[in-house]
Amino acid sequence: MLLQIDLQAEEPIYTQIMHQIIEGIAKKELKPGDDLPSVRSLASDIGINFHTVNKAYQLLKQEGYILIHRQKGVVIHPDGVEKATEAFYEKLRRKVRPLIAESISRSVSKTEWEAICATIYEEIEPEEEQ
């Protein structure tokens, strides 16, 4: 998986790294047990400070997406990502609520909001294997 980092974006680099790894897992481009580059290797490849990559990896570890081993390196969690819990749904509500409020204030209808969500979901959700 090749990360596309926009150094000029408003979104912090560590967040871009996190989001792209999570999306790679969602799309099944990254599978349980897959290796990720080391902190220093990824930082060097992107041309950023290794502390930025370390922050992304630590947050991914906290959320259960990856494991970090001193000898083995960084891997996608071999047991897969934990199913959504009530705590996850609450986090989701907290993150989505301001976006919905902003959308309503800009006269985006519920139907348009649902269509946008459905389109993004379809872009990310992997095709069913036949």
Q: Tell me the Rg in angstroms.
A: 17 Å
Strand order of the largest sheet: 1-3-2
The percent of residues in helical segments reads 40-55%
Q: What does the main sheet amount to?
A: 3 strands, antiparallel
N- to C-terminal distance:
23 Å
| CATH-defined fold name of the largest domain | Arc Repressor Mutant, subunit A
Helices and strands, in N-to-C order?
A: HEHHEEHH
Please give the count of helices.
Answer: 5
Shape type: globular
Unreliable stretches (pLDDT < 50, length at least 5) are: none
CATH class of the largest domain: Mainly Alpha
Query: What percentage of amino acids are in beta strands?
Result: 5-15%
**What is the CATH-assigned architecture of the largest domain?**
Orthogonal Bundle
Mean pLDDT metric: 93
CATH superfamily caption of the largest domain: Winged helix-like DNA-binding domain superfamily/Winged helix DNA-binding domain
Number of domains: 2
Task: Give me the secondary-structure category.
Answer: mainly alpha
**Tally of strands:** 3
Protein name: HTH gntR-type domain-containing protein
InterPro entries: Tscrpt_reg_HTH_GntR, WH-like_DNA-bd_sf, WH_DNA-bd_sf
Keywords: DNA-binding, Transcription, Transcription regulation
Pfam families: GntR
